[in-house]
Amino acid sequence: MKPFVLLATRAEDQPADEEYALFLRGTGLDERDLVRVRLEAGPMPRLDLDGLSGIFVGGGPFNASDPPERKSPVQHRVEAEFAALLDEVVARDFPFLGACYGVGTLGAHQGALIDDRYAEKIGVVPVTLTDAGAADPLLAGLPETFNAFVGHKEAIRALPPSATLLGSSPTCPVQVFRVGSNVYATQFHPELDLEGIIVRIRAYASYGYFADDELEVTLAAAARAVVSEPSRMLGTFVERYAR
C-alpha cells in the first residue's frame, strides 16, 4: 500500500505526539503507512502525490484570518507551502482530509470568508449533516446528528461556490465541507477521543480557547459528553483511498 501522510503544525511535543497517536488509532494504520511531517520544524518536503494514498492535516496554532503583520515567518512559510500543495491536490481531486486547520488551509485556498465570528470554545457540539453530507461516502453510516470535539478561534463564515457544505453546528455553520469529490475539511476534530481532548485542554489552557478560570469546567463538560462517531471518518477515508 502507498502511504498516507499527516501534515502537522503543533510545536508542543506532547499534544503533537498525542495527535499522531490518535490518527494512527483512528485510521488503523501503523507508522510506516502514516508518515508524519511536522511543518513547524522545517519546510514541507516535496510530496509526490503519485506515491501517496492520501493526505491528512492535523490541527494547529495558525489562524488564516490573522493580519499578515501578526503572522510569524513560520506561519507565512507553512501557508505558502499549503497553497502550492493544494493547487495540485484540488486540480487532481486528490484524497485530502484536513481537520480543524484543514478549514483554514483549504478554505483560504478556495476563497472562503474566514474570521472569528463563529469561533467555538474547546468543548463538544452537535454536528448535523446536510442532505449532501448524508449522501457523501466519507460520512456514510454516521447519524444525522452526532457529537464532535471542537476548539477554534476562527471559522468559515461563507463558503465559495466551489465547496459543498456537508455539516453544520448551531454555533458554527460550516463544520465539514468538500471540494470536488475527494478533498475534505472539517472544523471539528474527527481524531479526538476523551483522553485526547483532555491532553489538548491542559496543553492549551493559556492559549485563549477558554477563560483562565474555566479549566475545570471545560474538563468536566468534555468528560460528560459522548463522542463516538467522528473518528469513523478516518477509517472510512483509508478504506476509500488506500492503494
UniProtKB/TrEMBL annotation:
Pfam families cross-referenced by the UniProt entry? GATase
Q: Which residues form the Glutamine amidotransferase domain?
A: 50-193
Top-level taxon of the source organism: Bacteria
Print the keywords alphabetically: Glutamine amidotransferase, Transferase
Q: Does the keyword Transferase apply?
A: yes
Report the GO molecular function annotations: transferase activity
* Any one annotated GO CC term: cytosol
Please give the name of this protein: Glutamine amidotransferase
